């Protein structure tokens, strides 16, 4: 059984099929190759500059102060290591499927399935958060033009119930809360986030119509929001230096690095999506050249934008004012009585969130399409629309998977879960590069630079242990009464030591190992309760694989046919 769980796809066969322009060995028509490096870069920016910069950046700034820019830089470096690993995979395996396909080649079928299941957290579940953020900003725009939708049509049921319960527990009045004022049908409170549902439906239609139309829409929205963010930066720095509010940057690290690291989920969520570019490998005109460039260019551009905007908002108002602020950019300009600019920011937030949803709604169906081609999901998921040349059925299912929950669910519960699922995929991508067959120089495409980590990784691990020796000692001293968070820290240190030993023995390449370690560290800083939900999600996915995918996969069928022959 173990042998069947870890059966692998052939890298040579994937490259052969890609070279012939085939979806699979049966010769069905490939997706149209219309994406170039500019389109990929813009898609990366479209995916990254969205809900993070207009929403979760406020929480991170409240916890870490202006010094949260260091967390953006750390996260960018982590994503940079991962992007280089993605780039080599995309160059070597230029087909749709992203980390799922890459894991199938290097680790085997069961790991590939687990990654595909985890990526649902990144794309589909992540889009729930973005859609809810979109709805909040869109509702602000409507109020600014005197259109007031009832609260029970713009709030998720779970959010309304949580706010109601919290007010009851705190002894606060509840008569005006949406849970108390919403209409009742058949004994149930009718509370739904209708704008979020509508935008998911419209984005799904656009993703279904075609990649060309999606590309043009994404490029337009990215260009517009970059112009708006540049305008915000200029006005913000002018205000800071002309009004002498640079004092808001002091202290730069009010809560030390501990406070900065509290924003891991918020900041990493801001970067989620740059890897969505790799799901479009099959639609790239020159994936070996353009995919690596698109990933790196978009990552650099997004990091610059995040650092600048963070400095602007923490310079305009004191970091302590961002507690509970879901719209930090609009808040800072309203705070200094620039209400018209706050309105412009709300409009740009709607545009930015729309572009994120579009890229995610493009990425998820292509992963499902790849899984279906391999027999791990039913055949309809790989069905390509004859008219629009997109994975039509998978796109529609993705729309329902995102659209139905946004009506009812609370976004705060999804952010950590999305981050942990994405980091898990990143760990396996970085680790998977180490197991790719050696690629000779001059072989074409992107080649990850080899730097021997034999001594560097062990030295960095020793330095890390010395730097965090107090935390490690406390964790061991209070093992019985310690929280799950510190137990995760102990597990990380043990994993880092084991990886260091293996790197010393096997001369592993530095960049992939750094990617693995950075991603693992960010994972253990995510609240432990999210790990419980993550393990439950993974357990459900593994159960589905054992009941369906293991027997129906094409590799299993091929093995059965060979045995009978």
TrEMBL record:
Cellular component GO terms held in the UniProt record: membrane
Principal location: membrane
Record domain Cationic amino acid transporter C-terminal: where: 510-553
InterPro entries: AA/rel_permease1 (IPR002293), CAT_C (IPR029485)
Record keywords, A-Z: Membrane, Transmembrane, Transmembrane helix, Transport
Annotated compartments: Membrane
Membrane topology (UniProt): Multi-pass membrane protein
One Gene Ontology molecular-function label: amino acid transmembrane transporter activity
Highest taxon above the source species: Bacteria
Transmembrane regions listed in the UniProt entry: 40-62, 68-89, 110-134, 190-210, 222-241, 253-274, 295-319, 341-363, 392-409, 415-436, 448-467, 487-503, 508-524, 530-548
Pfam families membership: AA_permease_2 (PF13520), AA_permease_C (PF13906)
Keyword Zinc-finger carried by entry: no
Name of the molecule in the record: Amino acid permease
Species whose genome carries this gene: Deminuibacter soli
Lineage, top ranks: Bacteria, Pseudomonadati, Bacteroidota, Chitinophagia, Chitinophagales
